[in-house]
Amino acid sequence: MFWIEGTSRAGLGAATKNLGVQLPMISAEFPEVASCRHGTVNLLLDCPLLVLAPDHRTRQIPWDPSFGDGEVFDLLRIHFEAPTGTAPVLAWLYIPHGSPHRKDPRCHEVLAPNVQLSTGARCRVGISRNAVQLPYQTWPVIMVV
Description:
- By secondary structure, this protein is mainly beta.
- It has a single domain (about 1-145), classed as Elongation Factor Tu (Ef-tu), domain 3 (Beta Barrel).
- The protein is built from one helix and ten strands; from the N terminus they run βαβββββββββ.
- β5 and β6 (about 90-95) form a beta hairpin.
- The chain is globular, with a radius of gyration of 15 Å.
- The relative contact order is 0.28.
């Protein structure tokens, strides 16, 4: 398992609003996330993370008419220390394909059971999958393959 550190930050509020509709549709395909709270923890990771091979990619889910045929969601199992140093909980990176967060590979959202965390708290994401770290000068990019 490898660990990536990051900092929690305020999000757009969209996940809290939208997960009430999305989560039942997502969990119909991927039941592991059914008991997650209807909101995400927004993280700014210390290095970019690209998930090329998620644990689950949904079909196009028609949760909102503005997405036409629907939106695709990637989910990656993680261990989440929130805050750093606490016992890790099973959680998932939640990667909605239509999210503006996808423009920044350091910005990720975490679906989890009810986690109490303040903005600016340091966290750790543990991933037990094959990964490659690319040695770019600004940040070493990690890719889950």
